[in-house]
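Incident log, entry 3
Record: Regulatory protein GemA (148 residues)
Problem: checksum mismatch between cached and fresh output.
Input:
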Amino acid sequence: MDAKTRRRVLLGLAHKAAAQLGMDEDTRRAAQMAFCGKASLADYSDSQLIGWCWELKRRGAEIGIPAPPPKGGSGWGRPTEAQLAEIERLALRIGWSGLDDGALRGFVRRTCAADDVRFITRGQATAVISGLRRWLAQRQRHAGQEVA
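Fresh output:
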């Protein structure tokens, strides 16, 4: 497969995966911006496009990607997929846009002195999850008090 055809396939897979996940165009563009700093897939490099496809697959899209997953961040000390998914789920419940949200980065920085979720350890991921759960519980308690 030549480079042009491969790129077209990757672009199609990325759009298909986003549709499977129920993303409308605005949501998809915001997620792409958070992932790579570029709202349009046309501006992604091939390696960034492959990484985005693997990210969509991690989020639950059922696509076959014609490239191996990006290397790095999978050692025994790295957070598990379940931990990262839980952090993302909690961040979304708080109202943040996901793992690349600036507010989450600030929370991670205050909680475990890491600059980004990508750089935390398994133990730090547990601390972040606990902190986010406490924060949500506190918000729910305050919301309940305001209604009463």
